[in-house]
Structures are given as C-alpha cells and as structure tokens.
Design goal:
Blueprint: H1 4-10, H2 14-17, H3 35-53, H4 59-75, E1 90-93, H5 99-109, H6 115-119, H7 149-168, E2 180-185, H8 186-190, H9 192-204, E3 209-215, E4 218-219, E5 222-223, H10 232-238, E6 242-248, H11 252-263, E7 270-275, H12 298-307, H13 319-325, H14 328-348, H15 350-361, H16 368-382, E8 386-387, H17 388-399, E9 406-410, H18 414-418, E10 436-438, H19 443-456, E11 460-466, H20 470-483, E12 488-492, H21 510-515, E13 521-523, H22 528-540, E14 546-549, E15 554-555, H23 562-567, E16 573-576, E17 584-588, H24 592-603, E18 607-611, H25 615-619, H26 623-629, E19 637-640, H27 649-652, E20 657-659, H28 670-676, H29 681-691
Parallel strand pairs: 1-2, 2-3, 3-7, 6-7, 9-10, 9-11, 11-12, 12-14, 13-14, 17-18, 17-19, 19-20
Antiparallel strand pairs: 4-5, 8-15, 16-18
Helix pairs in contact: 1-15, 3-4, 3-5, 4-5, 4-11, 7-9, 7-19, 9-19, 14-15, 16-22, 17-22, 19-20, 24-29
This protein binds thiamine diphosphate (TPP) and magnesium ion (MG).
Thiamine diphosphate is lined by residues 59-60, 95, 97, 145-147, 185-188, 191, 214, 216, 218-220, 278, 292.
C-alpha cells in the first residue's frame, strides 16, 4: 500500500517525488572550477554583501570558506528544495557573526534565498539578518550569534537524532539517520557553555555530531595568545571526544580526510581542529582582527579580488561555479530515496510510522485534550494540598505516559525539582523509551540543549532548576522565546518561601525578569489545579517557550466553579467574586493567592480576588475579558507576590499598592520569613485599609 499521503502532509516531499530531471539546469560548464574557486564564491558574496551593508563580518566566511565548501558539496545530506525535509543533516553556525557564510551556502546550493536578499544583507525584513535567524531564512536551523549556544543547540539536535533512531529505526529501516555539523570559533570555545555541552555530548557518545573549530588565533581584541591558551584538543579528548588535530583548513584534501575519519567514529562526537587564516585572501587584513567585524573597504576589496584572481563584479557568480554549487537536483534524489525507504517502513510498521509522522508535525496525540480535561477536573474535586512542585510532578506523571515526545530533566536537582516520573529512563541508555536527561549542574547548556531538541522536531523538551538559577540559563531562555521554540523551563523553589537556604537561593527579581522576555509565557500557579493547567498550556503552546514556576512549600487548594476552572487558562481570572461592584481588587500569584483569599475574607464582601498565574497569557486576552477581571473603574487594587514590586505597577496603578519584596531575602525558616517580609493576612488587610 502506498503511504506517501501521510508523508506529504507531515513533511512536504512532493517535489522529491517529481522527476529529478525536471528542474532547469544552467548551461553545462566549459571548465570545471577548482575547489578554491568554489570557496572564493563564498568569500566574495560575503565580502560584497558586507560592503553593500556597510556592516558585517567578512573575516570568518573568508577563513572558513574552504571547509564549508568541502562539507556542503561532498557530505551534507540535504535538499535545498525542502529545507524541512525530515531526515536532513542539521548544519549549525555557532559562530553566527559569520552569517554571510551561511547565506552564501544557502544561496549557492539552491535554497530559496535569491541574490536580491544577499544584496539586502542586514536590511529591514530581508531574509539575511545580521545573525542567522531560524524564523527568517529557509535552511537556518537555529538562531545563532550569542557565542557557544549554537554549539549546545547542535548537541541537542544530535541527541534528538539519537533518541529518535533508538525508538523508531528497525533493522534495514534506518528512517532516522542524519548527522549534525557545527562550525564554531574561538569565542564559542572560550564561553563556558562549550564545556557544559561538550562534556554531555562526550558522555552521551553522540558520534553523529561533528564540530569544526575555526582555529584562527584571532578574536575581536586581537591575537588570542593573551586570553585563550587552553589546549583545546586535549580538553575535548578529556570530554571523550574523537579529536582530529591540526587540519589545514585551507586544504580541501586535508579537510576531506578529516571528515572521512569523523564519519568512522562509532561512539564519540568528533572535533575537527582547523587551522585557518581569518580574512583569507585579503593582502592587507588576512590574519588580522581588522577583518573580523567591518567591511574590508574599497581598496582592500580590489586588492583581494586581484590576490584571489576573482575578476568578477560584485554579486556576479560565473555559470560554471554556479552549476558546480547547485544541489537542488541531488537534493531531490536524496529525499526521494529516503521517501522510498520510508514508504517501505510505513508498509511494514504502520503504527510507528504514524507515530513518527504525528511527532514530526508537532501534533499532540488524539485524546490528549480530553484526558487533560478529565485529569484537571478530578484534581479540582479531589483538592490535594501539596507544594506546586509536587503538583508539577503529578502533572508530568499524568501527561507523560500520553506524550512520548516529552523528554526532560533537571540540572542535578531531580529530587528537588521533582522532574522524574515513573516512566523516566535515562538518555544515557540505549533504551528505546529513553526520555530523561540527567543534565548534571549545567543550567545554561541544559536550556540550550532543550532548544536544540525542540528545534530538531519530534520532541517537547522540559528542563529544570531552582528559579534563582534561571539566571544561569537566562540567555538560552531568551533564545527559546526569540526562536519560538516549544521548550518548557521548570523552575521550583520560587521565592523566599523556600526558607533556610537564604538569599543566595531565594529569587526576588526573577519572576519579573522572566516576564520581561518577549514571547515567553511565565506561569506561577497557586495550587495543584493551576499547576496542571499551566503544564497543559505549556505542552499545547506550539510556537514558544513557557516557564513554569513552582513552590517548595505546600499550597492550599482553592475551590472553583466550572467557569472559574475554565478561565484559569486565560492567565488571570476572578477566584473570589465580590458582592456587587468590587471596592477593592486583590491580585495575587502562587503562594500569595492563599493569603489574598484569607485577607479578602476579613475585609468583607466588596473585595474581589484575582488569581493571576500568567500575566503574559492574561495580557493576550481581549480587552473585554481583561476589563471583566480588572475593571478600570476600580482603582483600589493590591498586588501580592513575593517578588519585586515594580512589575505590578501596571496592574495596580498609582492608586494601588503592592505587597512584595524589593530587597534580598534572608536565611531562616519560612514561618519566620513570611511575616518578616510582610506576607501575612494582617499586612494585606492593613495595606488595604491604608488605601481607603
Ligand atoms: C556571548 C557573546 N559574547 C560576545 C559576543 C560578541 N562577539 C562576537 S564575535 C566575538 C569574537 C569571537 O571570536 P572568534 O569566535 O574567534 O571569531 P573570529 O574573529 O575568529 O571570527 C565576540 C566577542 C557574542 N556575539 N556573543
Ligand atoms: Mg577566532
């Protein structure tokens, strides 16, 4: 039975099925260009685009062009006609300042990136932004530029491939079988995240990950001899990598030999150490930091044209070179062959083939919504009084058996974050159901690896640490949001309420600070029910990350009507209605909702309580709904949250008040800390009276 239909919906390979010969070819060449000529096409597209933009980074593309040429022309398994072909190799440019290298490669090999876009490098709405952005340019797998993170994303992608292969491949049907290639510079390697990520990649034995180090001895401030003298090959050998030393990054034969050797690695990721010259070919700027991040300048461009024997005008690529680069036809054949393999696999193993297609589309299993509804309704009627971190674990326990795509872990705090569930199996194993990542104490790489897992597809990753250490992960959280990655970041021990560990461990500014990241949904639930709703919202959110913030301490259960239960997912809702028009609105999140409810009880019938587990989601509701929850006419409002007060001013206005904490916490039991910092019913009542 022909099963191509499902493929066509899951990943568009219609073009792969059309005749490979159908696409128009340029006139056959009279000459065969040299490899150096092919690499020079990259160099001059980069040089000329940077010149046109009057900004950008020519040095790295000029230095890595020869490596990229060999990799892309001889090894990269991709299909420029279909940038999202399921089994494509992933290519990551971790040293993202060299973005023009990637744009040149995409353009030359035949992706939908016309010359016009290269001419509009770094201009508003062009497909060639300053640094590669996965949501702007077809063929860009991840957004890079913050050095080191692309490398960690690549580790996540390679882990995704390994896990999928373990689960879905069958003898003679390696339907998941691709490599992850990553370019990285000295800057990526100086960044601490490279240690975290390389260490994990070594431990996991990700042998289909190949990293190329652009060892050019230069970073922005000059020759790195004063600040980067590590023995990088020895460092990676110590992580358990296969290291190929001292490759001449301008010798195509040497590069090819290194890649051949990397392909043989059975149980280790490979680092190819490439000696290169930044700004290669520029008589005045080669080997110098001056080529790193500025146009070469008119005279130097002319001198480089002469030196590299490139007589062509800016953005002009001779036909023979264009033809040699073209990968569209080969790409069609590759995807077509894989499609045949997949069809045979689907014939033989229809159920797992269906499952793989479902996961590749990012769709949840049929029935998930109904099961989640039932679970949440039962929680509401059972009313467990637990810490929200415990409620989070209960939610994982309830949802994870339905969602094999959920793969998660914690940065050495599994028993505090409560991220393990009954079905957890370490990804360090070869188990087909491996789904749990022991990240060790590596918050930043953990989060960037989550991003890689999410971007690869077929996974909904979650990661976890204490809320206070979200700072260690922060730029990767920001990148989740910028990239629209469906990653779930779990942060427990969410306030001074964690107690004795003291101010080093007590987040104060973190909630507000995570909320300030655009496109990031932060949830701080007040009980087990809201915790389950938050998990569900994070799972169902397809186009961006969620931060789920949970308490260490037990939280009271809140009774709700069906309507209230329904409205939790709107981010903020009336948990206690006033009799008549409210004279005062108390707005609270998480552990402070209980205090607000008790205070309202003392203050009388005119007081409304709004539970606001996610301000981000609430802010997206329509104006009528927001007005129905927080009526403009009621100016007496108090926000209560064990965090910085400034954030809440937009909800309470000048006439309102905030019960919060604008200092660091302190080391003491929770029973002493909460009253000390004013998180008591009495203080909320007194604050309310002071507003009158
Ligand atoms: C996290 C981070 N810090 C700083 C920068 C700014 N920056 C961009 S490139 C660069 C130097 C990188 O040196 P290297 O990777 O050796 O690049 P090369 O000059 O060799 O191309 C710096 C500091 C950045 N992009 N990301
Ligand atoms: Mg460098």
């Amino acid at each position: 039975m022909f099963r191509g239909d499902r493929l066509r919906v899951g990943w568009d390979n219609r073009r792969a099925r059309s005749s490979p010969g159908a696409s128009p070819n340029p006139t056959p060449p009279m000459t065969t260009p040299s490899r150096r000529d092919l690499a020079n096409a990259i160099r001059f597209l980069a040089i000329d685009a940077v010149e046109a933009a009057k900004s950008g980074h020519p040095g790295m593309p000029m230095g890595m062009a020869d490596i990229a040429e060999v990799l892309w022309n001889d090894y990269l398994n991709h299909n420029p006609n279909n940038p999202t072909w399921f089994n494509r190799d992933r290519f990551v440019l971790s040293n993202g300042h060299g973005s023009m290298l990637q744009y040149a490669l995409l353009h030359l090999s035949g992706y939908d990136l016309p010359l016009e876009d290269l001419k509009r490098f770094r201009q508003l709405e062009s497909k060639t932004p300053g640094h590669p952005e996965n949501f702007m340019t077809p063929g860009v797998e991840t957004t890079t530029g913050p050095l080191g993170q692309g490398f960690a994303n690549a580790v996540g992608m390679a882990l995704a491939e390994k896990l999928l292969a373990q689960r879905f491949n069958r003898p003679e049907y390696a339907v998941v079988d691709h490599r992850t290639w990553v370019f990285m510079g000295d800057g990526c390697l100086m960044e601490g995240i490279s240690h975290e990520a390389a260490s994990l990649a070594g431990t996991w034995g990700l042998n289909k990950l190949v990293a190329f180090w652009d060892d050019n001895h230069i970073s922005i401030d000059g020759n790195v001899e004063g600040w980067f003298t590590d023995d990088t090959p020895a460092r990676f050998e110590a992580y358990g990598w296969n290291v190929i030393r001292a490759v001449d990054g301008h010798d195509a034969g040497a590069i090819k030999a290194a890649i051949e050797s990397a392909l043989q690695s059975q149980d280790k990721p490979t680092l190819v150490c490439c000696r290169t010259t930044i700004g290669f070919g520029s008589p005045g700027k080669a080997g110098k930091e001056s080529s790193h991040g500025a146009p070469l300048g008119k005279d130097e461009v002319a001198a480089t044209r002469a030196a590299l024997n490139w007589p062509h005008a800016p953005f002009e690529i001779p036909d023979d070179i264009r033809l040699a680069w073209r990968a569209r036809d080969a790409g069609l054949v590759r995807e077509h062959q894989w499609g045949q393999l997949f069809d045979a696999y689907a014939e033989r193993y229809p159920e797992i083939a269906d499952e793989l297609v479902r996961r590749s589309r990012g769709e949840l299993p049929e029935g998930f919504a109904a099961d989640a509804d039932a679970y949440i309704a039962k929680l509401q009627s059972d009313g467990p009084v637990v810490a929200s971190r415990k409620a989070s674990q209960m939610a994982i326990e309830a949802f994870a058996p339905l969602l094999p795509e959920l793969v998660g872990g914690s940065a050495d705090l599994a028993h505090s974050n409560l991220t393990l569930w009954k079905g957890s199996k370490s990804v360090a194993s070869d188990d087909a159901d491996a789904n749990y990542v022991y990240y060790g104490v590596r918050e930043f790489a953990m989060t960037a690896i989550s991003n890689g897992l999410a971007l690869h597809g077929c996974f909904i990753p979650y990661d976890a640490t204490f809320l206070v250490f979200s700072d260690y992960a922060r730029n990767a959280v920001r990148m989740s949001a910028l990239m629209g990655a469906r990653a779930i970041h779990v942060y427990t021990h969410d306030s001074i309420g964690l107690g004795e560990d003291g101010p080093t461990h007590q987040p104060v500014e973190h909630l507000a600070s995570l909320r300030y990241i655009p496109h990031n949904d932060v949830w701080r639930p007040c009980d087990a029910v809201e915790s389950a709703v938050a998990w569900r919202a994070a799972i169902e959110r397809r186009d961006g990350p969620s931060c789920l913030v949970f308490s260490r301490q037990n939280l009271a259960h809140q009774p709700r009507t069906d309507a209230q239960l329904h409205d939790i997912k709107r981010g903020g809702y009336i948990l206690r209605e006033s009799v008549g028009t409210p004279s005062l609105v108390l707005i609270a999140t998480g552990s402070e909702v209980g205090i607000a409810m008790q205070a309202a009880g003392q203050l009388g019938d005119g007081v409304r309580v709004v539970s606001m587990p996610s301000t981000d989601v609430f802010d997206r509701q329509d104006a009528a709904y927001r007005e129905s929850v927080l009526p403009n006419a009621c100016r007496k409002r108090i926000a209560i949250e064990a965090g910085v007060t400034d954030f809440w001013r937009k909800y309470v206005g000048l006439d309102g008040a905030v019960v919060g904490i604008d200092s660091f916490g302190a080391s003491a039991p929770i029973e002493a800390l909460m009253p000390h910092f004013g998180f008591t019913v009495d203080n909320v009542v007194a604050t309310a009276r002071s507003l009158v």
